[in-house]
Write a structure and sequence with these properties.
There is one protein chain. This protein is mostly helical and 139 residues long. It is built from four helices and no strands. Helix 1 packs antiparallel against helix 2, helix 1 packs antiparallel against helix 4 and helix 3 packs antiparallel against helix 4. It is elongated and about 65 Å long. The two termini are 31 Å apart.
């Protein structure tokens, strides 16, 4: 066989995570779980408003709740994946929370300062913690 067609060696095993990387993964998982709980709270609020007759458009409220439930399922699954250090959990956590950062910045002048600052800190915290987990091995 020529040099060009020789099989390449498989990548070596990934070093086990350091305690700092494990802690970063647990922090990222906990923060994403908090996001899921907050979205559940909003969904319950929408349903209570609908039950009390305060919702303006029933179809819009129901579709909003369905959308929130889909996000809750995705966030919960992502949190579980981060906790188990699954490599495919990092991308959705980072992507969702990169979107939280501009939302937090936009909320600063529109809502109470602590709401915007909280959203901003939560989004940035998840991104930093997820990157701090290091490279996860493929399964």
């Amino acid at each position: 066989m020529s040099e060009r067609h020789t099989p390449t060696s498989a990548p070596g095993p990934v070093d086990p995570p350091t305690p700092r990387q494990r802690t970063a993964g647990k922090v990222a998982a906990a923060l994403v779980a908090v996001e899921a709980v907050v979205v559940v709270g909003f969904a319950v609020f929408y349903l209570v408003e609908l039950a009390l007759g305060q919702g303006q458009d029933t179809l819009v409220v129901i579709m909003s709740v369905v959308t929130m439930v889909v996000f809750v399922i995705g966030l919960a699954y992502t949190a579980l994946g981060l906790l188990r250090r699954h490599p495919r959990a990092q991308a959705p956590a980072i992507a969702f929370n990169f979107l939280m950062v501009p939302l937090g910045i936009a909320l600063l002048p529109l809502a109470a300062w602590w709401v915007g600052a909280g959203v901003l800190a939560l989004g940035a915290g998840v991104v930093v913690a997820t990157f701090s987990m290091g490279k996860l091995e493929e399964r």
